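Now for a typical sample entry:
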Amino acid sequence: MEQVIHPADEAGKLWLRWQESAAEQGVDGVFDDDFVSALKVVWEGSDYVAQSCLRDLELLPALYRQGELLRAYGEGEIAGLLRERLKEVSDEISLHRTLRRFRRDHMVRIIWRDLTRSATLAEVLEDLSALAD
């Protein structure tokens, strides 16, 4: 019989794995207790967010420091942010990499805000539409 792992237990294990990896790589992993509680809720609900943070150890501290996980964007702001990121692109390979990272960063932010109920359904849908454009 296959053992069933509760999502909260799995999120806790992933968090420990992130902390260990961050310590090994010298990544700042100091967060307040409320943030860690929210993180576990998000990682319980979204394997995409958990795996994104585990693949890029700098993602979580960067979004945390910048306050992006709680921030609502105004109309046209996501498009403006993309234009800013694309200014440094010089070839097709870096274009694809920049677009993937931009999409990942904003999907993590949108999912975080949705699962922590920091955003209304209308805000989540507006952000998803703006990201798709």
